[in-house]
Amino acid sequence: MEPKLSARQDHLLSALRNAETELSGQDLHAQLRNSDTPMGLATVYRHLRQLQQWGLVRCRHLPSGEALFAPTERDDHHLTCVDCGSTQRLAHCPVHALELPPQEMGGFLPLFHTLEFFGLCPDCQRRQGRA
Ligand SMILES: [Zn+2]
Ligand SMILES: [Zn+2]
Fold this sequence. Notes:
By secondary structure, the chain is of the alpha+beta class. The chain has helices at 7-18, 25-33, 41-53, 122-127; strands at residues 57-61, 67-71, 78-81, 87-89, 116-119. A hairpin with a 5-residue loop joins β3 (78-81) and β4 (87-89). α1 (7-18) crosses α3 and α2 crosses α3. The N and C termini lie far apart (51 Å).
């Protein structure tokens, strides 16, 4: 059952679904500034939090602290460099077919998963003298 979204929440979710990449709260704020439903940055974050609570939107944090949002049905995973913060999307989800044991779920309803690898990109390995 989909929760009843307000016009603004619907707008934010559509903007995330139509975007090719993840968007920050600032990106969304800037994108909606010229639309027919502009909203302040605090309002953007408040609605994003609500969308997260409904399991419709996910959030991940870069090493810089920047938060990036994406719709949960997009099964994307990333390799993120802990040094320069560059982030690269994996072409396939490595755990897509993973089955959760029903006897351990205790009635929990899974909506989505996150999986992120942290490490060093080739440039940073060279700069650190590791490669
Ligand atoms: Zn790097
Ligand atoms: Zn996945």
